[in-house]
Amino acid sequence: MTKTYGELNPGERVLLGPGPSNVHPRVLKAMATPLVGHLDPDFLEIMNDTMELLREVFQTKNTLTIPMSGTGSAGMETALVNLLEPGDKAVVCINGLFGQRMADIAERCGAQVITVEGEWGRIIEPESVEDALKGSGAKLVAIVHAETSTGVKQPIEEISRIVKNYDALLLVDAVTSLGGVEVKVDEWGIDACYSGTQKCLSCPPGLSPVTFSDRVMEVLRTRKTKVQSWYLDLTMIQNYWGKERFYHHTAPISMIYALRESLRIIHEEGLKNRFKRHITNSNALVAGIEAMGLEMFAQEGHRLPSLNAVKVPEGVDDVKVRKYLLERFNIEIGGGLGDLKGKIWRIGLMGHSSTKNNVFLVLSALESALR
Ligand code: PLP
């Protein structure tokens, strides 16, 4: 007996978790566009548009602003393997899961990692970054702008000034902020920044937009050792995205179609309107959550509009509630990670998923689950 396989038919979910978010129908349609070769003149134009539109969302003039093949972690790894050489010192700020991941990768690069530990749910204070930098000779400071594991939005500007005073490079994780929450790469003095397509850009997961300053380009030119990863070596990849258009690896054509379309949607909406929409919907959600007698988790004044962390009330079974939401309402929300397992819910309002309707839907569903 040969086994038969049915057509793909997953449930139609309202994606209000930590990512992926719902994908705009225009992006899904763009993905079905017939392929051209990855060196086709038409594709080269599509690459140019994509780089231009990416500079707009990153608010930068950096030439090297491209999507890396791979998810957000590929962007994280790209930044660290290219900027760090064995023996370099790196200050890594940790107040959530993704800071921990950066420290792990930096260590794998052979760097001496100096960690700045902060309480999960609170921001990293600029003074603690300065304390870590003092006399360290660190080459790099790495920090997460939007900590998806806690819902904290980290202020970057003051830390950037400190990092510059110590002549170090600033690396920022903007996976859960880019395209939904303001990220000003040039104005904030960020040297390296990466994101992911599946959050506020509302594309499927699969690309990691990155941008690097001229200072980083100089660091790349003067490296003493080869970048440990062949696949993520920017010195080679920039020759594909630059004027030379040298083959490095086959670009994921359909994903680049998708990203270009999602960036075109952002361009049409306008960054200011988009940020405002994310703030308005998050404020409405928080008002509803608090009206239900529930409490937000992240430090007041530093909450992310794209990821809203809510404390699970005493005596409530986190998993049961999430299962109820999924089975009854087709809504996905996230649970807590690490020490926060069972203690918070993470409600994403990202990109195409950040709508007034979704706010009402998730509030009513939660209310029904807790009744
Ligand atoms: N950084 C942050 C802040 C994230 O939220 C994530 C994913 O959720 C990542 C990095 C890693 O991205 P990915 O899971 O796409 O590899």
UniProtKB/TrEMBL annotation:
Domain of life: Bacteria
Domain Aminotransferase class V: 36-336
Pfam entry (one): Aminotran_5
Protein residues bound to substrate: R346
Keywords: Aminotransferase, Pyridoxal phosphate, Transferase
Enzyme class: transferase
GO biological process, any: glycine biosynthetic process, by transamination of glyoxylate
Requisite cofactors: pyridoxal 5'-phosphate
Enzyme Commission code: 2.6.1.112
InterPro entries: Aminotrans_V_dom, PyrdxlP-dep_Trfase, PyrdxlP-dep_Trfase_major, PyrdxlP-dep_Trfase_small, SP_NH2Trfase/AEP_transaminase
List of residues that carry N6-(pyridoxal phosphate)lysine: K199
GO MF terms held by the record: alanine-glyoxylate transaminase activity; L-serine-pyruvate transaminase activity
PANTHER family reported in the protein's UniProt record: ALANINE--GLYOXYLATE AMINOTRANSFERASE, AMINOTRANSFERASE CLASS V
Similarity comment: Belongs to the class-V pyridoxal-phosphate-dependent aminotransferase family.
Protein name: (S)-ureidoglycine--glyoxylate transaminase
Organism lineage: Bacteria, Bacillati, Bacillota, Clostridia, Koleobacterales
